[in-house]
Amino acid sequence: MSIAAVKPDQGTRVLSYAGALLETMDAALADHANTFIMGQGVDDFKGIFGSTTGLAEKYGAARVFDVPLMEEGMTGVAIGASLVGDYPITTHIRADFSFLAMNQIINLAAKYRYMFGGLMRCPMLIRIVVGRSWGQGAQHSQSPQSTFAHYPGLTVVMPSSSQAILDMYPAIINRHPGPVISIEHRLLYNLDFTVSPSEHRVPLTSYVARKGSDVTVVATSVMVLEALRAAQYVEDKAGISAEIIDLNSISHPDWDLVAASVRKTGRLVVADTSWLEYGVAAEVCRQLVMRDPGLLRQPPTMLGMAPAPCPTAKSLEDIYYPSQHETVDAILVQVRGDNHGIALPVERSMTEGYKRFRGPF
Amino acid sequence: MSIAAVKPDQGTRVLSYAGALLETMDAALADHANTFIMGQGVDDFKGIFGSTTGLAEKYGAARVFDVPLMEEGMTGVAIGASLVGDYPITTHIRADFSFLAMNQIINLAAKYRYMFGGLMRCPMLIRIVVGRSWGQGAQHSQSPQSTFAHYPGLTVVMPSSSQAILDMYPAIINRHPGPVISIEHRLLYNLDFTVSPSEHRVPLTSYVARKGSDVTVVATSVMVLEALRAAQYVEDKAGISAEIIDLNSISHPDWDLVAASVRKTGRLVVADTSWLEYGVAAEVCRQLVMRDPGLLRQPPTMLGMAPAPCPTAKSLEDIYYPSQHETVDAILVQVRGDNHGIALPVERSMTEGYKRFRGPF
Amino acid sequence: MKDEAIYRRLFRTALLIRLVEERIIELYPSDKIQSPVHLSIGQEAVAVGVCDGLKPDDLVFATYRSHGFYIAKGGSLDAMFAELYGRKGGVSGGKAGSMHLAAPEVGLMGSSAVVASTIPHAVGAALSFKRRGLSQIAVAVFGDGATEEGVYHESLNFAALMKVPVLFLCEDNGLAVHSHRPVRQSYRLAEHAASFGIASRRLEEGWDMLAIRQATLEAAAKVRAGEPFVLEIVTSRYKEHVGVGEDFHFNYRTSDGVDAWKRRDPLIVDQKLVATLRPDIEREIEAAVAFAEASPAPGRDELLADVI
Amino acid sequence: MKDEAIYRRLFRTALLIRLVEERIIELYPSDKIQSPVHLSIGQEAVAVGVCDGLKPDDLVFATYRSHGFYIAKGGSLDAMFAELYGRKGGVSGGKAGSMHLAAPEVGLMGSSAVVASTIPHAVGAALSFKRRGLSQIAVAVFGDGATEEGVYHESLNFAALMKVPVLFLCEDNGLAVHSHRPVRQSYRLAEHAASFGIASRRLEEGWDMLAIRQATLEAAAKVRAGEPFVLEIVTSRYKEHVGVGEDFHFNYRTSDGVDAWKRRDPLIVDQKLVATLRPDIEREIEAAVAFAEASPAPGRDELLADVI
Ligand SMILES: Cc1ncc(C[n+]2csc(CCOP(=O)(O)OP(=O)(O)O)c2C)c(N)n1
Ligand SMILES: Cc1ncc(C[n+]2csc(CCOP(=O)(O)OP(=O)(O)O)c2C)c(N)n1
Ligand SMILES: [Mg+2]
Ligand SMILES: [Mg+2]
Question: How confident is the model at residue B184 (pLDDT cuts 50, 70, 90)?
Fold first, then answer.
């Protein structure tokens, strides 16, 4: 099954994730004179995997510029510029590098408005990219959404499609009052999505990516695509109707939407890009039991990274990440039980479904 | 009610939390020639709130030494020393400063053993202190247990008493194979506890701090004390029997112990030192529903920091943190419902129960 | 004399800072100010001389030890005391406290309790000024200890590369908590800055407000012309690192250095001027304290406001 | 000639590295090596000269671009190819891959894909050597870009303060990914290091293995005597930053610099010696590739091993 078939909805043109990023970056610079983009390599020919290519030429080096290796310093520079009215966009080509800027992000940016009783504001967009597959290894593959979302003051989103970017970024850049961390996924960059003219179909919170009645799948980022593919499979093979909620905002999800879906289905799969422990799956459970522990008719199934750092070897990577195989199985187990007897897709490695993504980056 | 009355058990002597830390630091240096302590101010007269005082004089500047302001660098230095067989103990007088070392902690220390297939090991102890009360404000009060525990490779503990330190630290220092983060609580430092000779009553996982049958309270760090005080109160005033589990290890809790208790009581209070969102409370819920969503008879009650950065004003700080008042109320609501009608303790501010803790540090 | 008038102006502000902090010392045992206070007594001349050498719209980014900069930049005294008291009338409604004074309306852009963390903020503001073609400059205020943090290096490099109008202002009191500079630093600021192509000046006479003002005027002129500059001013912290007491009895330092400094401290030496200015300043302070006392404490309504 | 023998030894190791990486280039399209590779082709002389100038028990802490250091330090070729293949026979059982080669038994203490992150590790190991009175030294290997990170500053300061036996070895290929050094750095390493009281040397002839070896011997002697030292070696990266291709057609750099370098590169110039040594080396490589091919892939048993 090809990815292009995964259409979130009827749409009017085809646009890759990287293309959507480039469009929103371009529009931000065109529309807002106070906006600038800085990050390692934003002005080079690779342009953050195609998401900033050509913008330095178009808007000049004062608006789009390379920086030395200085994650903490760069983030501090962005905060300072933001405090005086600029709108900075910074990039980290791997989310893992944002740990070097953790102090500025958590102790400063997240706190500034509250700490000064509203006197200060530092709206800005921090784009961090999650690596996966092709032997990214332990230090190029982390997905720290729950880490950031734990800290009040930060807004954390994980766009899972071109549409999500087209809809959310213009609502964030220069509009959202505080710092936003957008966790983009490297595997999505080269995928094509059908998009419709921005009608803000993807809000700055969660939304139903696919309607269904038998089981609720709460997913984030690339796992939304995996869930959509799996939902199609289980519908085709077993007539199962899976409802898929793209959590989308990790800091401000629509928990009522999630609870309403689970109330309807009584069954839950959570599919996240990070570890389960103290992750998105945990918070989903908390929100449900706080509303009503009876919402779930049975233990949910959870898909995330295995509880280990990410191994490099492909044979290990393939079992480290939840595959299409496991995603389908999770849905089937929820609806039909462990002995569902339905054949699983042969595809084990997720990357086999993303043929256009091919190493090294 | 005074804190001294909160005895975890019968014991043979009285020892403050700071005193227990000093004893274990001293013993570590005496017993293991490869152990050293470094951190800002470890050799000064304040000695990390009394936990390292006099050790530089006793063991020399090569074993206990001050460092410049360099959290990332210091942690990297510790890793390097550990890789060649040393056992480093580092300190951060506020947990918030460890965010400057996040890259070394998460990307390096946590990964080294796995990433090299077992070729490398970097056992070490990182002591970080949570600030609370006396206007610590937004940047001196964070409690990042869920952040660290999300990342495989790290062992995260939160000793809640002198006994926990006496039992755990010797089992960690030079014995535990990997990096350990111990999150100590500033409010505990000056409290006296009755301790018995180390029989390893506090394991490197969770344990029952008080037996009970009506409601399960899962607590961490200073909230264990608050829970113990509240349990005594509800027993005295309402004959309610609360079981208290000190989660103690955040990375490797005994979830079966927690589940067994909840199976027995059907009621749950979680009392943590950090924010609820993506925090300890969330993971507790996940573990329970993964075992059996029917374990909980009703929605649990959760106590943690209000969803905001920590304000400095005392009037706000008092409502920002869960007080004894709220802890008692939580237990009563679980057992008797919202209209329990039982008088709550007048004490609203937790610090009023900790008279010996008085600013500025 | 023109200089005389300036001296008097500077002196008055410095005395205001000193008397404010002495009032804080008096108040502290009452527990009305429930937050850590890092006093600048002994260091007032730096804040006063520097801020007087800046233009009003130049921005200052400071630290937890910023009572002096708040006042020297022209922050409201009422709002400051109310802030220390944790009251609604505080400049940040009590959420900030002593460690996080800010007064953006007069150019104090916030103070952080994480050492060195506002240094890159000043660089970022300066970057913005440059791009917009403004003539403002940004000032990063930090202690000697802050220069040990990696972000200081990153900030110097970036500022020098981008040629942004930022003044790096180091208050060298020789101490980071209880650690003396030589055990922490293998470098001197001047050579270190020079290695980034950044000019610098070390002023030993940190008690001399006019000299500091003059040094700031000269440094700011260079900065305004588009070059970062490091200005290091030697100073002396009379009190303990945090809190309102003295700390000589802990024997990590002797009082000699501080005593020598005091013999040159105009606020001590020039008792005549102190006597002249004191009554008026004290009235000002009492009014501010009264304002704070009368200001209500923030409540549940405020707890979750301004988070995002 | 003694020098001649040494030259031949160094040359052979350098050629081994080059041919290993050329084999990787050949293999890459087959997708047998599924992980990012950062080739050191053009830079081999640095690893070879430096490692030869060290004692066997001196420790090296390196980066994602460390095929050269792994081989020059004496790591097993079989275990390396199996590691790149992600096989059980790999030095780290396939969990590390190209970016994280380690061979502690010969003193390569791990390579990190986070730029600059192993620099303080070398300092920490050196600190340990000093306290235990050992005569070993630790070497921090890093690229020019790594010196921009704050931790480089922190590491230099600490090393200088504690006088630990650490050699800071900078491989200056003038590039960080596609950024040229002048847009990233306002400092030169020598002056910068000098500001910390650290002696340094910049060697322009980074193709000259004997010169590098000699410079390392001299630097290591100083380090062993108890002083950190910064050794900067100019070198040239022939291939793209990551991956196995060339990148001149992207126009961010011209091939001129690399061409000039190649004209002095012994592995290109000295074709006679290449021809002599090649057959033997190729057999060695083929054996290692065969070992890798035969090695089984790790499975579920390994997935959760060695986490804590
Ligand atoms: C990143 C960080 N590390 C440690 C601390 C604890 N601390 C508070 S003040 C201080 C000393 C700072 O010295 P300096 O920069 O010279 O400023 P001074 O207090 O002398 O004005 C330290 C280590 C902190 N607040 N932030
Ligand atoms: C902390 C961090 N930031 C960014 C990156 C992305 N990155 C990988 S290699 C590299 C360039 C490093 O340049 P240099 O240190 O000169 O080493 P070279 O690749 O030239 O050998 C960058 C920016 C990273 N791996 N780690
Ligand atoms: Mg100081
Ligand atoms: Mg380079």
Answer: very high
Q: Ligand 3: distance of its center to the CA of C143 in Å?
A: 4
pLDDT value, residue A359: 38
- Ligand 1 centroid to residue A78 C-alpha, Å: 23
Domain of residue A101: give its range. 13-195
Q: Which of C149, C186, C192 sits opposite D150 (nearest CB)?
A: C149
Q: Are residues B286 and B326 in the same domain?
A: yes
Mean pLDDT of C267-291: 98
Residues 100-159 of D with CB under 8 A from A: 100, 112-116, 145-146, 148-150
pLDDT digits (tens, 9 = 90+) for C107-131: 999 999 999 999 999 999 999 999 9
Q: CA of D305 to nearest chain A CA: how many angstroms apart? A: 8
Q: Quick check: is B6 in a domain?
A: no
Same domain, B85 and B158: yes
Answer whether B261's CB lies under 8 Å from B288's CB.
no
Task: Answer yes or no: is pLDDT of C78 > 50.
Answer: yes
How do strand C229-234 and strand C166-172 relate by DSSP bridges?
parallel
CB B347 within 8 A of CB C22: no
ipTM of this complex prediction, to 2 decimal places = 0.97
The chains in contact with chain C, meaning 3 or more Cβ pairs closer than 8 Å, are: A, B, D
Residue A3 has pLDDT above 90, yes or no: no
What distance in angstroms lies between residue C177's CA and the mean position of ligand 3's atoms? 7
Enter the pTM of the model. 0.97
| Residue C142 reports pLDDT greater than 90 | yes
Q: pLDDT for A284-321, tens place per residue?
A: 999 999 999 999 999 999 999 999 999 999 999 999 99
Q: Dump pLDDT digits (tens) for B55-94.
A: 999 999 999 999 999 999 999 999 999 999 999 999 999 9
CB contact under 8 A, A277 and B149: yes
Over residues A39-64, the mean pLDDT reads 98
Q: Are strands B301-305 and B268-275 parallel, antiparallel or unpaired?
A: parallel
Distance A94 CA to ligand 2 centre (A): 11
Given the candidates 2.60.120.480, 3.90.180.10, 3.40.50.970, 3.30.460.80, the CATH classification of the domain at D3-174+182-239+252-296 is 3.40.50.970
Verify that B167 and B269 share a domain, yes or no.
no
Q: How far apart are CA A224 and CA A231, in angstroms?
A: 10
Consecutive H or E run containing C49: helix C44-53
Distant-in-sequence, close-in-space partners of C5: CB < 8 Å, separation ≥ 6: none
Which pLDDT value is given to residue A355?
54
Q: Is the CB of C115 under 6 A from ligand 1?
A: yes
Of C94, C150, C177, the CB nearest to B70: C150
Would you kindly state where each structural domain of chain C is located, as residue ranges? 3-174+182-239+252-296
Q: Is C254 exposed, middle or buried (0-12, 13-18, 19+ CB in 10 A)?
A: exposed
What's the domain count of chain A? Answer: 2
CA distance B25 to C213: 49
Residues B7-46: b if buried by 16+ CB within 10 A, e if exposed: bbeebeeebbbbbbbbbbbbebbeeeebbbbbbbbbbbeb
Q: What is the CA angle C139-D180-A99, rounded to 5? A: 60
Q: Which residue has the tokens 């042969």?
A: A346
Residue owning the nearest CA to atom 13 of ligand 2: D176
Q: Which residues of D touch A307 (CB under 8 A)?
A: 304, 307
A275, A283, A288 ranked by CB distance to B277: nearest: A283
Question: Which residue is closest to C101 within chain A, CA to CA?
Answer: A116
Q: Read off the pLDDT band of C3 (50, 70, 90).
A: confident
Locate D230 and state its tokens.
């910064």
Average pLDDT in chain D: 97
Q: Could you tell me whether strands A192-195 and A13-16 are parallel, antiparallel, or unpaired per DSSP bridges?
A: antiparallel
**A109 inside 8 A of chain C by CB:** no
